[in-house]
Each structure stands twice: as C-alpha cells, then as structure tokens.
C-alpha cells in the first residue's frame, strides 16, 4: 500500500505547534501512525517554533495568520480575516484530494 491514493488521508487542525499538551499528543499520535497506511497533514494557524519535529514525518501547512491579526475596533477587518483563513483552509483541503 505504498501508493498515495491508497493511503488514508488524515488532517490535523491545530492553532499552534508551540510547546503544549495538545501538541505533544499530536506528535505522539502522528509519530506512531503507519506511513504505509496513512498520509498525515497538519494545518496550523500560526507559524511558531515547535519543540517537536513534525516536518520530517507529515506535511505542515501554515495559514497566513500574520496578515490576519484582527484590529479590535474594526469589525470589517475581522470578518475579512476570518473569511481569508477559511478560504486558505478550503484550498489546502481541496488540494489534498488532487
């Protein structure tokens, strides 16, 4: 089952890969998955330093959160930012099916 099309795709969505319990659990799960059976992808909202080495085992997608920081008094900017994140997430998931 070495063919990518035969592998089951798993997508993990997480706000950050910085140090924390959720990140450690994700690393443990991702590390123990059989690469012949599963194709792992990680979608992360912020590009922060991680003590765990995800890039060697799974493809990591970072959403452009630097350009999506909301201005507290600006409802329109926050709304556009959320749609931008959703659009980026949609594009990544859509590309997984190709």
What does the model show?
The protein is α/β, with parallel strands linked by helices and 98 residues long. Helix content is 35%, strand content 18%. The chain has two helices and three strands; from the N terminus they run E-H-E-E-H. A three-stranded parallel sheet has the order 1-2-3, with helices on both faces. Helix 1 (21-32) links the parallel strand 1 and strand 2. The mean pLDDT is 79.
User: What's the alpha carbon Rg, rounded to whole Å?
Assistant: 15 Å
Instruction: Profile the largest sheet.
Output: 3 strands, parallel
Multimeric state of these chains? single chain
Shape: flat
Based on helices, strands and strand pairing, what is the structural class?
Answer: alpha/beta
**Poorly predicted segments:** none
- Beta-strand content bin: 15-25%
Q: How many beta-strand segments?
A: 3
Instruction: Tell me the distance between the termini.
Output: 18 Å
Proportion of residues in helical segments: 25-40%
Write down the overall mean pLDDT. 79
- Give me the strand/helix succession: EHEEH
Number of helices: 2
> Spatial order of the strands in the main sheet?
1-2-3
